[in-house]
Batch of 2 targets.
Target 1
Amino acid sequence: MDEIDKQIINALQDGFPICDAPYRQVATQLGLTEQDLITRLKTLLDNGVLTRFGPLYNAEQMGGALTLAAVKAPIERYDEITETINAFPEIAHNYARSHELNMWFVIATETPEQIQQTINAIERETGLTVYNMPKIKEYFVNLKLEA
Amino acid sequence: MLDDTDRKIIQATQAGLPLTPEPYQTIAEQLGLTASDVMMRLSAMQNNGIIRRIGAVPNHYKLGYRFNGMTVWNIPDEFIDELGQKVGQLKFVSHCYHRPRHPPEWMYNLFAMVHGKTQEAVDEQIQQISDLLGDYNLGCDVLYSTKILKKTGFRTTARTQEVELRMEQLPSSGKSKGSQPVTD
């Protein structure tokens, strides 16, 4: 990754034009050729520096629902509980975290009602209390990270 | 509201935008639409918030951001909106939310994600949040992620769909990969 790659990463986190030849427009702004931009972008995606390039959809605006939830998984049952919770297709992410609440996951469903149904099922299958922490208010979301 | 054509466009772009000189034309050809129709619909979805933005999502770790912490704070409810806005405006905070407490065990109601290339950088950021909150900070903690247990795209009404992640990005293959050690 060189300075030009970094400029591309920074520029493309700010958005992308909707026009006939958007790569050419961005390339011109960066002093590159269209083909150079496309080639570098492909490399950045292939080697995983970028996880994605394209429209980022907002699940809630599409009628879906999301929540953040956590459990206190006893250490001796940690792997078993991980397996049980991960088996739910509604679990989008699951992270181990350094806290008594040591497993944090995002539940994503097609309808708001399914969130509670999923929580009930997880509680039933694990015997643990699920701490549901849906957002009450979003103050800021910005994934921009300077390269 | 979304119609079937919108949903087709969403499905066609769930893996990303084509890397062709005229990407909207490429999508249009796949779906039997015109490029101007695709562009109009994408613009409309961007304007009404279905699309947060069109752009690139970097892997935090590959850019050197190895320290990703979920900072959590106990803020009096009557001040949380004002302070949440201010914390969200700090340039190093990537996500900031008001979430419910679960007393007595979990008294934290403000969540702010921070990212740094060193532990010192993250500690400095946490100190800045703490300074900003001052006496309104009734308690805080920082939960570092120690392992990715699962990571997939979200399911939506347009079927399996990768959407903008609401939590911090950890090293990602883009697909579920089971347990993956994280060294923070």
Target 2
Amino acid sequence: MTAIDLPASTATADVEKPQKLAPRRYYLFALPALVLIAGVIIFPWVFTLVMSLMEFKVGGSVEFVGSANFAKLFADARFGESVLRTFWFTILAVVLPIVIGTWAAVVFHREFPWRGVLRTVFIMPMMATPVAVALVWTMMFHPQLGVLNYLLSVIGLPPFAWVYDPSTVIITLVLVEVWHWTPLVMLIVLGGMAALPSDPYDSATIDGATDWQMFRFITLPLILPYIMVAVVIRTIDALKVFDTIFVITQGGPGTASETLNIFLYLQAFQFYNLGYASAVVVVFFVIIIALSLLLLYVRQKLKWNA
Amino acid sequence: MSDFAVRPSRRHVLGGAAAGLAAPFILRSEVLGQSTFDWKRFSGAKLDVMLVKNPRSDLLQAHEKEFTALTGIQVSSEQIPEQQQRQKAMIEFTSGRPTFDVCMLALHVQKRLAAKGRWLEDLRPFLADASLTSPDFDYADFAEGAVGFGRQADGSIDTLPHFIDFWMVYYNKEMFEQKGVAYPKSMDEMFVAAQKLNDPAKGVAGFVSRGLKNANIPVWTSWLLGQGMETVSPTGQLLTDTPEAIWAGEMYKRMNREVAPPGTVGFNWNECQTTFMQGRAAMWLDGIGFATPLEDPTKSRIVGKVGYGVTPPGPKGHHSALFGDGLGISRTSAKKQASWLYLQYMCNKGNQLAMLKAGAGSPGRSSALANPAAREGSRFPKEYFECLAASGKIARAGLPQIIPVTEFRDVFGVGLTNTLSGADVATELKKATEAFKPVLEKSEQG
């Protein structure tokens, strides 16, 4: 190899010069994306933030009220109840699909006859649109004419109120969510299981470990990062679920299934209180960001290389 | 007998002959009053029309071809589901530049909003202008209740009451006969009748009505009208925690708890309709506009057994809760006169009669109800038409004529729903009244 001796200062200058100029040149290329982000993401947010400081009712006057909307929001019992209800719904609508989905992934990871067909059947609910799913379940929940109470009567059980009772409405709506989204969790976890190494299992088999011990001490720790991905996706989905609840109960009976999204919809699109609704959006956004950051932090901690 | 009749003169005979020859032309001109009216004067115009998705709008769209052939005016209309249509109307009218010339409005929800926002053109100048209004239009033919419903407080008429809906009682005649129960003559008797007809062991309820918040308000106001009272006084005072309102709330509570099917707390009109249609309830209180599927053999198990009863009188009054839709012209439209021709044509006697015959709802015109042709070939029995006519005579607004109707329905709807879980009626109504009062006061200020 032939070495070319260059003065140190010249060589440094040649290397540094493009590095200094590069960012300025790239600004132009980044500009369209920046404009797009500013227009589609930043502007709506700033506008929502500004509106949350206004008394703004469609068809009425617009005036600056500072933090009055937030003060009113935190004093509004219905808002507080909707936040608690949202959390309760989210916890159930995340935990149950995760548990059932993980169990289903373990089952479908094994070889058995008709596995492919059954796996396809299992993931079918996920393909249906939420509104169609909600309409079908609404018919099935009908206390007198629905198929669910008919099935209960066939096995000698009394009819159940399903979504027509304030005390059972949330758990029934969670049931719909579980039916709809457990397949997604199963797919994510199943994908993770396919990537697991076989060595630990071989060692465990030689050591005489039982199936449960292999799952508890090998499979579960190794698939935890994948489960966390499913948890993040499910949490965000469950927090913002609207269509299923609105179609089936419209937040009722009374306000028994009125989650934050339904409360927000009522304020914005039924009562046209855009200022107040914007304040709800801001609070909701803070909740989602905080939860997402928490979950991402946990996920980072559970990474294999952590 | 006159001298003329006994011994006609030559002049009389010639005059009579001339009159006989001219008669067909005169009659034709009267029958087709439109022939003397220039329907073509706005030929070439194009109208945008925003409708609510329902069978009546289907009929309006079906008439568009005939309208274009008659006037030369093109119509571009769209049907939007009810809730979204109301939102679109609100936002577009508020923007000051609505994209439509003609709009369908729910008078029971948007009437005061339209007046406050000055959304629609006053139709009185058009009605008074003989060059713009066909001689056979006959505005006086619209029922008094419907006209009153469409008229604003300042006397302006900004919509034609295209459709009106009365609340009445559907009842299963077979069940009544089997138990030897007569149709109730009062609201109190209605509860007694429902108790007799209630048979949970057989899965049959004595009565069914809406329990879902918001949707349940007309049930309560129907009982309240039996006290001769509405929820808001003519001066704008809330009457929602008065003894009469509490009585109506108690009526709502006991009817929906003691003689109704399980789960009515979450029932909207469609669940009630399904329950009644499948023979699982003896009575159903709701709008007569939901009657069509009940007489459809592919959907209903009680075809031919449905009785149509006028809402029974209460202790102090006898009224049927009234709801309705109107067609109005956008105040900012550049084609107001052409739009007026559209309104006239779509609400003419023939089209209003067609609406009734199709079972698409009750028209605003009296002549349609009185016309025997409506009953010919109709799927509905005579009793249906009698109920319509009788309800029309005692109709009274089913919802308060205020701006925040939706908030009213939400706040009081939640309170009433809570009573079905055992809450005290007076306490819930007092709480709801206190919560709603500032909303109402503010709505009148801004």
